[in-house]
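A quick aside before the break. I want you to see a complete sequence-to-structure record at least once, exactly as it would be stored in a machine-readable document. Don't worry about memorizing anything.
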Amino acid sequence: MSPVPTKEATSSSKAPNETPSEPELARSKSKAGDAEWNADTLSEEGEDAELEEAEKEVLVTILEAVENGSLEHLRAGIERRADLEESSETFGDTPLILAAKYGRSVYVKILIQAGADVNAINKLGDTALHWMAFKGDEACVSLLLDHGARIDTAGEYENRPLHLACSAGHLKVVSKLLQQGASVTAKNSFGNSPLDMATNSNIRRMVKAVQTNGDSERERLQEEAAEEERRKLAKEEEEDRKRAEKERTRREAEAKDEQRRQEVAAEENRVEEAALARIRKAEEALRKAEEDARLAEEAAQEAERARKQAEEDAKKKAKKSKKDKKK
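That is the input. The structure line, written in tokens, reads:
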């Protein structure tokens, strides 16, 4: 509901056809200008806010990208050469250590390829290798070692990566670390060796064998791993061959099916064309018969006309002859 106008406001109001005074025009122009300025200001502020928001979105750090699990922001950060070694305030984790801690193998591989320091340590002394060994990620452990990760860095409680892999029961990672020369005698803050930490009987036998036979056992593990890798590659090649054979068989079957479809379609077209040809021939014969009948009818009509004309002529001739005789 609109408020009732006051007496003062009513008395000072002008009729629609009255011309406003100059001060009133000035005030109205001023108000219009203020409105335009406010609109422009609000528009600019809105654009600035959107720009700031966009910049915030773009300028996510690599550490934040790993923390938030955003591959898109991780790749964007690497592309603009953002800091690969920024560390978290709490534990001093670099992006690589944090990715390893979260078990994000893809992030670990991307960061290593981007040049992240594989030997960076956090406030507890742990490296990315500690976490990947603890997580049991053989591929990332191998990648870290291939890029120069130190194998016996003492982490939290003086644990080496081998301690953690043994305690977590990751046989293949333990084997990889032993092959690369990880110490089997190093002790942590509690005086435990990797063997003391091992909970898996196969791991215990493996570590004991290295303790007893030294480098020869490490070489045997390398040969065993190489043989396993060869078997793995052979299996993959066989699977690839089977897939290729299956694909070839599928394509051949599809080609045969397509050929059969084309042959059936061609036969259907041939039958259809033959049927159409027969129909056209019958129609042509019918048209010819109708034309012959029409011509015969016309000839008969013409003969009938000729006969009638001959009769008429004969009658006229006889009549004339009769008249001539009377004369």
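Two observations worth writing down. The longest helix spans residues 215-326. The radius of gyration is 51 Å. We'll return to this after the break.
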